[in-house]
Structure formats: structure tokens, C-alpha cells
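Box 3.1 A note on notation
Throughout this textbook, protein chains are presented in two layers. The first layer is the amino acid sequence; the second is a C-alpha cell string describing backbone geometry. Keep the layers aligned when reading.
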Amino acid sequence: MGIGNDHNQIHSMDVNSESSSEFHCELGSFDHQVFRQFRALSATSADELLSLDWISKLLDAFISCQEEFKVILSQNEADLSKPPLDKFVTDFFDRSIRALDICNAVRDGIEKIRLWHKQLEIVSGAFNSKQRNVMVEGQFKRAKKALTDLAIIMLDENKEAGSVFSNRNRSFGRPNKGKEHQQKTGHSRSLSWSVPNSWSASKQLQSIANGLVPPRAHEISATNGLANIVYTMGFVLVFVLWVLVVAIPCQDRNLQVHFSVPRQFSWGTPLNLLHIRIMDESKKRKNSVGLLKEIYQMEKSINLVTDLVDSVNQFPLTAEQKEEVQTGIQEVARVCNTFKNGLDPFERQLREVFRKIMSCRTEGLEILGRPQS
């Protein structure tokens, strides 16, 4: 059954109410916005998919949907604490607090990329010379050492307990000693302002996705359609978090998080297409530390320059060798420039997502806690 049919059923129950008709137009507008945002994202070219620019658009889409969702909640305060809607809303806010951990883990992933970027800059800088056509053995030794250090850092991805990222002391959130943190604990759950070594991105994602099922017909009618809206926003949250973990190196990341894209909603079509495209990309890059397009470009440039540096065993270089090395270093420089210009805006946007999630949750819980007249 499509979402439009659900709304027609609900509308027929209250056909004489003009305000009800306007209300359901609002709900339909929200569904359409989700569809429109993700249709544009799903239609992107293969070159842009999973790039920093594309993920920026994904986060923009999430923020836009989240803001409209928050407006709908605030306009229907009286209904939020009534069963069965209260359970849908409470479950959504529980997913939200868990989502903050993912945001912090992705921020840590950005720090990893920054560390790789620094090593890449050393590789590129090793060949910076006033005499551009002169390449000496010392330059190759510096580049080799930087490449070796970079390889060690990236291999350490699977040994994170002993790596430089095991002591996490930066995040978007601040300690909150509220009861909810004391009451809800578990293997895959961490405090929202830190991600300990035992934490797992894939398990946290799975815990957020678990129990996220479309409302049944009687729940839709009992909530005047609001249950569909809460479910839709919950699924958008899960999907966006999944893309972030897929793209960015996170602690214990795994693409095989089990969730099904619903087909009965209009927005299910573009989300399903995106899911298929991203999974196809993952099959091509099974051993990648992250599916971010710029990480793929970095990996290619590292392999290219490593092969070139290793192939040089005597000096001076031939003109052909110089040209090949210069081409490889230019590729490294392009990747460095992309990271230099793209990581800071990405982190700021991720911080904004964190704040929007927190703000929506805080305001929603305040509404739920108010005595109803």
C-alpha cells in the first residue's frame, strides 16, 4: 500500500473537516520533501556519489527534513504524549541520542583523514624544490619514509585500541550526568560525548535500526497520520548515519547493517536506489578504509607514487622518470588540496547535524514532559 493510499484512508474518516484536510496536506508535504531531497541525491553521477560535496548535500537534506519534522511536532504538541504516538516519539528520541555517538565517531574519522593528509603533504613536499627539474636521492628517501609511515597508520585501522585514536578527548557533546545515561547502557552503547575502545559503529547502527518498522494501519489512523511522519524521519536518520559510517573510517565499521528500505512510501524509491548504488561501490572496494570518493583518490595516488618511488634505483633520473614522478606528485597534491579545502567545512556541517539532532530531541522531550490540559 502506498503512502498516498494511507492518507486517502485517513482523509476519508474526516472528510468534513477543513482543518484536517490542511493537516494531511502538511503530512503529504513532508513525505514529498523527503522524496524530492533524496531523488536529487540518487540521481547524482558516479563521479560525485560519496564525495565530500555529495555528502555535504546529504547532510543539507537531513537538516532540511529534520527542521520541518520539528515544526510538525511543535504544531501537534497535544498529540505527542497520547498512545500509541508517545511510543513512536519516545523510540525516535532514543535513536537520536544513539545517533550522537555516530556523529562523534565520524568526527574521529575526520581526524584520521587529517593525519593521513599530513603524511601526504610530507610526500608532496619532499619533491618541492626551487629547481623543479632536479630530483635527488634525498627527496626519494623522505618520500619513502612518509609513505611507510602512512601505510603503518592506515594499517593500524584494525588495531585501534593501541593507536593514536584510542584516547578520544574531543567531541561535539559535553558530559551529561542525567538519569537517561545511567539507565540505558549496553555493549554497543557509549556516552554521547566519547567513544571508548569497546564501542562498535556497526553495532551502534544496528541498535538504532532495530525495531524501526512502518506503523500499521490502525496506528496510522489512531495518530492521525503522525506515526508515519515519525517513522519516516527515523528511517532518514538511520540511512544518513549508515552513509556516514560507510564513507568515513569509523571504529569497527561494517557495511552489513540490516535494514530494509520500505517500498510503500514514495521516498523509498530513491533511498533504495542509493542503497543499491552504495553497496555496489562497496563491492568494488572491499578493502578500503572508507568509501569516501576522496579516500579512493588518495589510495590511488599513494599506490601510484609508491610504485614510482620504489622503481627508482639510480640517479640521476631520466627525463621520462622525472615526468612520471612529477605526474604522480601532482596527483598527490590534488588530493591534499581537496582534503585541505573540504574537511573543515565537512566537520562544521557534521557539528551542525549533531546540534540539530540534540535540539530536536531536547525540545521534543520538553513537550512530552509537559502536563496536558
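The longest helix spans residues 319-369. Residues 18 and 361 are 31 Å apart (CA to CA).
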